[in-house]
Amino acid sequence: MGLRTAGSVLVVFLWSVTVVLSQKGWSVTYTTQSICTLKGSTVEMSCSYTYPSGTVTTTFWFTKKYAVENYVNLRNDSNYKGRVTYRSDKMNGHNLTITDLRESDSAMYKFRFITDQTGGKYTGDPGVTLSVTDLQVKVTTTWWSTTLTCSTTCTLTGNPTYTWYRNSKIVQDDSSPSYTVYFKTEDSFYCAVKGINSNAVSVEGHSYFHVTYTHQRICTLKRSSVDISCSYTYPSGHTVSETIWYTKGKLNEVPQILSLGYGGRVEYLGNMQSDSILRITDLREEDSAEYKFRFTTWEPTFPGTTLTVTDNTAGHILSILQTIT
């Protein structure tokens, strides 16, 4: 599986939820308890701390502790080499930034500080739980469509926008992680969240019920003519038995079916198997409406049971004997 980037870097900043851990004047306040973000992105964790007296001499973040007072500073951890940055301020705030995240970075991160006072050491425990996940496209196929879902092992922090690409061109930008395909195609699809891309998948070998209109809107003149067209698909083996155009009325209004020759102004064109054109002549202002197309198919059936009725008793007995043997 290849991981793409699209020229930008996902950075997660969290400043909303505070978690205060304190003891006799010592405290560490984390801005959040948990973060879920993407492999290859950058994450920032932050906290503030208090202490009763003295001067702070050492501050660091860690995930590993091998023995009493044997904490592994992230800066000295070979697994994080070149990827960790600390930043502090005069208000006792401290930030940890980790770049180029890996799934192995998933862990609980804790902040520890030491003062020049006897016994002046404190760890904010529990810390911040970081979950690093990859983007994967999950494919769900039904008889009418294929739904592609940008899947993660945890819920991404910050309500991100999911961008879907078809052959590297954007087809959807939405808060929903899913994109639905209603047509047979061998195109390549993948999703992205702020420059971090998923694996690519192809939707092949499926044909679905779907209608595609040539134009979403048409503006034309009174007394002129207009062609409203569409194309449609359906599973192989089905045969189109009926096609109709109708107007979508207002709420609670019954849709008006535009029969052939309706008012002498309506004509159906097209091959009636994969495309259709509604032609309306001598247009009037009251013709302004949303026009929709509907088609009905017969699906293939399997052979059933053939019943033969006869008054030939001897032939009937012979038929039963043949069935038994």
TrEMBL record:
Domain Ig-like span(s) in chain numbering: 126-202
Domain of life: Eukaryota
First and last residue of the signal peptide: 1-22
PANTHER family: B-CELL RECEPTOR CD22-RELATED, VASCULAR CELL ADHESION MOLECULE 1
Gene3D superfamilies with a match to the protein in the record: Immunoglobulins (2.60.40.10)
Keywords for this protein: Signal
Pfam family, one: Ig_CD22
Organism per entry: Oncorhynchus kisutch
Protein name per the record: Ig-like domain-containing protein
